[in-house]
Every structure is written in C-alpha cells, then in structure tokens.
Amino acid sequence: MNTSGLFVETVCKQACCGNEAPCGDSFLQRQFPAHGHTVLVLSDGMGHGVKAHLLSTLTASIFMGMAGAPQSIEETARTVMQTLPVCSIRKISYSTFTIVDIDHRSGIVRLIEYDNPQAFVFRGGEPLEIGRKAHPYSHPQTGRTQTFHTGSFAMRRGDRIVLTTDGVTQSGLGTDRYPFGWGRDNVAAYLGELLRGDPSVSPSALAGRILDRAVGNDADIPKDDISCVAVHIREPRKTLLCSCPPSLTSDIASLAERIRTFDGRKIICGHLLAEQIAGYWKTGLRRQLTSTDPELPPQWEIDGVDLTTEGLLTLSKVLEILENYAEMPTGRGPAYHICEILLSSDRIELVVGMRKSNTAAADKETLILRRKVLGAIARTLETRFAKQVVATYL
C-alpha cells in the first residue's frame, strides 16, 4: 500500500495536577521532510509543577533535537536515557517518554516506550496487537538496569494511535470504582466504544473524551498531570486556490483542467480569471445579488468551483483574519468562507498567475499587490497554522 500521501493529524489534550499550571507532561511533534518522517514525543516529568515541566520539556527537546540524526531511533533513545538526570534516592530517571516515528516512505510506524503506558493502536475500531521487544539498559551513573520497549507496524489509512501518560491509566486510584486506577484495559475498552460509535471522530474530540473521563475519575481535580495524544492517519484534506490570470493565454487550458480534476476544495479569487475559466468550460458565471460582508463585493458562482470571489480586497481581508485569528470575531462573507476552507485543509495548493497587465497602471499595481498578499497568506498558513502550502506560478 502506498502511504506516502497519507496525512498524520495529531492533537494533544492536557490537564494539570490539582488544576494548577504548568503541566508536568510535554508533547512535541516535528516533521522531517528530507527523511520522510514524522516524529512525536510525549514525556512525563517526575512529580508535578515547574520541576516536572522542565524535566519533561528537556527530555522531549533532547530527543527531538537528535531525531534527524543518522543513528537509529533505538540508539537515540539510549543516548537520551543516558543524558537524563537520575533521582539520587529512587535511582530512576526523572522523566519517562513515548516516541512515535512514522516513516511515510516505507509506511512503517515505530514505537519506543520507557515507563509510560503502552500506546494504543486501533484499526477499524478494534485494537491492533503490537509485539514489543525489551531493551535492557544499564545506566552508567547508577548501574541500575532500565528497560525500554520497541514495537512496529505497517500503517494503513484510518489507523488510530493514542498515547497517554500514567495520569490517564491511574486516574480514579483509590476510588470505589477504580481502587487500582482506571487501568489500561479499561482505557482500551473505552477507546473501542468511542471509535466504533463514531468511526470518523476527530483526534481532538477523541483526546478530549479520554481527558474528560480521566479528570472525572479524579472527581474533577486531577491527582496527577494528565495527557492524551490522539493520532489519525488519513487522506489529507486539500484545497486549490487560484488567483490572477496566467502569463500565457495558452495556459488557461491546462489550468482549467487542473481545477476540473483537482481532488479537493476549489477556490478562484479574481473576476478576470473566473471569466477565463468559465469561458473555457463554456459554463455560466453567475453573480450573487448581495454580499454577506458589506466591505466586500458579492461572490460569483461557477459550476465545479466551491467558491468564486473578487480578488485583492477579499484576499487582503483573508490575510487580516489569519494574522489576527485569535482576536477576530467570527464573521460572515467570502473572506471568512475562504479562511474556513483553508483552516480545515491540510494541504493547500496556490496557483498564482503572472500575467503582465497592459492596461492602466492601477490594474498593474493591483495584480502585483495581490501576488504579495498571496505570498503573505502562504507564509501565515505555514508558520502560524502548520499547513502544507505549495505555490505554482503560471
């Protein structure tokens, strides 16, 4: 099975011990495009509060800093364990960790676990049993033998991976219902119920349900830091956004075909380009009578295109919304609709036309400015929203 095009959607939900920040668990995710890998690290610092937070952050950061090195992930894990400080009394490392290394080229997912609860893997709503291999390791400072475990499986579309710290499995400890804690088996059973009940449940909702249940087990005052990471391996949600006419009139045909066959949402920004595409397709370009945003012109409609809007004014407002997303109130209109589509997508393809205007200087300035705005939108989507953006210039 070709897995190179699959997307890894990941969400981490956390609750702090005693509802007091900071959380003593840390989660990091990083893509390594040159190697075709995605790496996740969930670390649990001993205790809670600032010290635990610093220790777990140190663990996750050290591993992530070494993850792109040529050595094997097992060797990296040994190096991290050797680097970690050790409790002078209990003679154990100050933090535990779970590592997920996803190789998009081979389709192999590798797990490395050190004293965290075993990762949960589900396929088709049922648990997938992953064989583990023990790796005993003698710590150079204490001489104490510590053991980390590794496992692997070939990923498939739809697979779910769930990581937790022991704040989840030990939630409810000492209660009448869970005298020994919620336990891994009960967590697995609950995950199975959720996934079979709603096979399309988002990672955010899934992690949130696990977190809410764990916090509830502790009577809404967590006795430990609680973290749940939910991963969904799926097809990417894609969007194609086209704006500005291409430099060569002959490129209209190839662009129209690209839009027609694109497997995802389609947006055209700019009346002239919309006219050219509609003309090539021999279909109508229909203008809506009113705009739901008084600051922007009305939208158009073309059969086969999800959204067709004016160019510069609309794109400028899209950029404004994205740059001030946390503070911007929810609104209506074409710019908000574009943002909604872009932010619900994983991969965004921009097609930017490079036609040189032979008309008025104002038209030429408008095209140049629109291209600059598109570039700023692409950078904002990549840096602030972690979207994969690919731009093509015609």
From TrEMBL:
Segments passing through the bilayer: none
Coiled coil: none
GO molecular function: phosphatase activity
UniProt keyword annotations, A-Z: Hydrolase
Domain PPM-type phosphatase: 7-233
Protein's recorded name: Stage II sporulation protein E
Native source organism of the sequence: Rikenella microfusus
Species classification: Bacteria, Pseudomonadati, Bacteroidota, Bacteroidia, Bacteroidales
